[in-house]
Task: structure prediction
Amino acid sequence: MYNLVGNEILKLFMKKRLFVVLGILLILIGLFAYGEQYTRDRTEARVAEELGIEDVDDWREITNQQLRDLDRRLENPFIPEEGRASLEVRAEQLRYYLEEDINPTTFSAGQFMSNFMEQSIFLFLPLLIILLGADIVSKESTTGTIKLLMTRPVPRWKILTSKVLALMVLEMLVIFAMAGISLVIAYFTFGSLGFGEPVITGFRIVDGSLDTSNIQTVSLGLYNIMVYSLGYIVAFTIGKMALMVSVLVKSTPAAIGIMMSSLIGGTFLSFFIGDWELTRYLFNVNLQLTDFLSGNLQQVEGLSLGFSVAVLMAWALGSVIIAYGVFQYKDFMD
Amino acid sequence: MMDQDIKKEKNKRRENKDPVLELSNVKKTIRKKGIIKGIDLSVYAGEVFGFLGPNGAGKTTTLRMIVGLIRMTEGEIKIGGYSVKKDFVKAMENVGCIIENPEMYDYLSGWENLKVLASMERGITKDRIKEMVSLVGLEKRIDDKVYTYSLGMKQRLGIAQALMKRPKLLILDEPTNGLDPSGISEFRHLIRSLAEKENLGVLVSSHILGEMEMLTDRVAIIRQGSIVKVTSVDEIIKEKGITYRLADPLKAKSLIETEFNGQVQIRDDEELVAFVKEEDVPAINQRLFSKGIPLYYVAKNQKSLEDLFLELTAGDEIV
Result:
């Protein structure tokens, strides 16, 4: 089995796809870091201008400014209900930081890292995993090399298992690459690691308002480990689904297309018919696992971390069962 | 008639050894349509067995069932005595194959390809891989990526990959596709010598008849999912006959029949076809001469595998 997994990993590394993904990560994280720096500079400058001071060192002033911005936006009567709720939650969070004397505006590499994963977890991370996973069987079908594999004295399930394991290693690698690249770029951009900073987590949304009864303070380092672990859960699920599609269709572009459209289509669906009870069992609406840590308002009400992880695991398990079932009895006709 | 032929062959060979490949009543049905309608055949160690038929007759489907790429609906396939259905791993340990094009991982080098595939088998040493590389003459290019290879080189790599496990049975699907003439003749010599020296059973499919005639010991002709005839190439060649164009066919007929023990068919008043041994032809010519029968020309008949094939497949399209 080790040799089979080793072979699969060798193949994954020798294909250019992995390096394309790493390249995309590098470029995107660079842009993201630059954008973050730019926005922060602008906010500081604006605050400084409004307060008529030269330099802004007091985070309270900046936070107050952000609060005022939020309040101003909330006064706008044309904001839809859902948007209003999310702004209110954000405002409450800021008030909480002020009361507890915790600085939410300091920006460190650690914060950037967790921000980046929080922003990527529902779309960008799945896209990367789809790019890598959708061709793991379909490419061998397209190029015909599947025949080489299937005519070895190795049972079919072992061949698929080696691919599943190799893909899991790759999912892990993508998570580590995201963490590593964002850490290095952010460290050079923002100058401090900040893993010791306290972060507040455990916010819950109950009936559209913020429930702070369960909040905890953790270090930013630990918070990052939690965020990236949740990232791996998403990568794991999407990876298994991509594997299934890769078994079901012969062409890699078709596999990527199917996965991308279900990812994006499902998100749209949940956005438009979010009231419908069934949408909460779509994998799409359960991808934003990090929101349960950071306290962002969920698009679909009534979700919890446990529920979302359970739904994702169910999707992963279903995908794996279908993949094995089909692969085991498939006829390789051409 | 067909079954008797097969049984006779089998019995003759079984006296010496067991077949390395045995198909009994193999059927494949897809959506209630019979693609393969019950195939029986055996391939023995040391023989090159041809599988001949027009495109779409079921050659590739049958070969894919033998190597487990397609599951059979009914019947039994045994390789080296192991059932492909029940004992897949053991059966596959005895077979090397190239199914259709010799596809390899083109982003890996030739050597990496062989190494990856060898690691999935038991007991293939580095020396064995090297031996195979030199057997197919790829030493100089083996470290290059496969996408830089020509089709011929990929074909050689495919053969190295199929042979490195020392299989008892080698399966080649349309092996000479894309090879140039010198490559084809080299390939033919390699396959024949492997069959003879290493006692390898070889199953080759093709629609190129001349190729099969030179390469195989026996052929099965398949048409619309059934085997129409299993025959040896020797028999076909024997059936060919010699055309004589001469002045007095009747007289010549009795001469050939009595003195050379051959069958003669008179075509018209100036032509006959004699089924005689080729080595007797000079002597026959001399006798005709001395009997004073004017001889216009003598020609070896072109009746060949191709004629037989066309007869049996009744004009199905051959591409």
